[in-house]
Amino acid sequence: MLTGRPKADLKLSAAEEAELRGFSASRSLPHALVARARVVLWSAEGKSNSEIASQLNWTNATVGKWRQRFVEHRLRGLYDELRPGRPRSVSDEKVALLLRRTLKKKPPAGSQWSIRQAADSNGLSKSTVHRIFQAFAVQPHRTRNFKLSSDPFFVEKVRDVVGLYLNPPDHAVVLSVDEKSQVQALDRTQPVLPMGLGYVEGITHDYVRHGTTTLFAALDIASGTVFTECKPRHRHQEFLSFLKCIDQAVPPELNVHLIVDNYATHRHAKVRLWLAQRPRFHLHYTPTYSSWLNQVERWFGLITQQAIRRGSFSSVKDLITRIDHFVKHYNRSCRPFAWTATADSILQKLARLCSRISGTAH
Q1: Mapping DSSP to helix (H, G, I), strand (E, B) and coil, where does residue 202 land?
Q2: Count of CB atoms within 10 A of residue 12's CB?
Q3: Among the residues of 105-153, which ranges form H helices?
Q4: pLDDT in tens, 267-282
Q5: What is the rounded CA–CA span in Å between residue 227 and residue 171?
Q6: CA atoms of 233 and 266, how far apart (whole Å)
Q7: CA of residue 267 relative to chain centroid, distance
Q8: What phi, psi does 259 have (nearest 5°)?
Q9: In this structure, are 118 and 186 located in the same domain?
Q10: 178 and 219 co-located in one domain
Q11: How far apart are CA 350 and CA 286, in angstroms?
């Protein structure tokens, strides 16, 4: 039976296997290096070259090449060899100095480096600095916002809310409830220029304010339908009135689980008294500074983007009419949001963030 040329044995040490698995799971290393690490790991597991080539959409010869490179040179054999060409004009020391200065220091006048400032400060051209920033994914012009919760019961509340999303109780409806306050009825001072071929819609930057409304919303996480009411103010009286409407809308044989934030109106004494008299209602509070846990916030983003932000409203009544029209249209074809994050994955992500923050302390 013909089996082809015999392959050299490929065995990994514990250290090599650990490093290769780190390579194969990396999202920052070059894709080619990640794929080569997988070739070696799969080969060590006993897979044939043809099986690996099929998975990576490579040729058998390419798989065999990198397998043999690893056998002969181990980990350093997975890196590309130097190619002929013009010698580099920027030394490693200059690159390291540029990166260290960009990451560790601020410019003399300003809060973040620009490519021009970094080039002038390091004696390099703007194109060189741009290439180095791209190669090392350095983005001094960008920031990421975050806010850590100071809630002493953060872990318990996360597990409670996420548990409702992933495993909702039987014979009950789970509603994500919140209010979007100070929704402004803004009327543009000049007519909107319609979008056309080759140019975008034109709107004036100034507007006339005609008043505000508060949008109360309850999102059914099982079906994706939304129950809303617009009210003139944002007090416990309005929230209690909204709860009474929910009580009438939900069939009496079902329990009602409400996910709300820690706003004062949700904890008012009269609200608590009303809830205590209705044992089928259960409130679940999100941790402080954790509005991202409340699914209705995502729906608020949708209605803001699609119906409010670029709208022009002649009065508060006109604004409320447009909101009601959007809600009716949305509920006709709504789908629930797909929540996939577990409580453990959320807590692990926050633990990594905290370790990064603690690592920046001086």
Answers
A1: strand
A2: 18
A3: 115-122, 126-135
A4: 899 999 999 999 999 9
A5: 19
A6: 14
A7: 30
A8: -100, 115
A9: no
A10: yes
A11: 16
Considering the domain architecture, whether residues 299 and 179 belong to the same structural domain is answered as yes
What phi and psi, each to the nearest 5 degrees, are found at residue 83?
Answer: -105, 150
Tokens of 175: 């509603």
Q: Is 80 exceeded by the pLDDT of residue 170? A: yes
Give the other-Cβ count within 10 Å of 6's Cβ: 6
Q: Quick one: pLDDT band at residue 362, thresholds 50, 70, 90?
A: very low
The two tokens of residue 88 are 């580099």
Amino acid making up residue 188: R
As beta bridge partners, residue 176 has: 219, 259
Q: What is the SS3 assignment for 362?
A: coil
What are the residues whose beta carbons fall under 8 Å from the beta carbon of 314, sequence distance 6 or more? 185, 187, 210
Q: Which residues contact 39 (CB under 8 A, 6 or more apart)?
A: 52, 56, 63, 66, 67, 70
Measured distance CA(19)–CA(125) in Å, rounded: 36
Q: The pTM is what?
A: 0.68
> Is residue 362 a part of any domain in this protein?
no
Give the chain's largest Cα–Cα span: 87
Among 79, 64, 98, which residue's Cα sits nearest to residue 29?
79
pLDDT confidence of residue 312: 85
In the chain, the number of structural domains is 3
pLDDT tens-place string over residues 102-146: 988 888 878 888 899 888 888 889 999 999 999 888 898 888 887
Residues constituting the chain: 362
Alpha carbon 125 to its chain centroid, in Å, reads 35
**What 3-state class would DSSP assign to 281?**
strand
Q: What is the dihedral of CA 188, 191, 195, 196, to 10 degrees?
A: -160
Residues 272 and 177 in one domain: yes
The answer to whether position 298 is within a domain reads yes
Three-state secondary-structure class, residue 177: strand
- 8 A C-beta contact, residue 302 and residue 172: no
Asked if 343 and 165 touch (Cβ cutoff 8 Å), the reply is no
Query: What is the distance in angstroms between the CA of the first residue and the CA of the last residue of the chain?
Result: 67
Domain membership of residue 120 as a residue range: 92-135
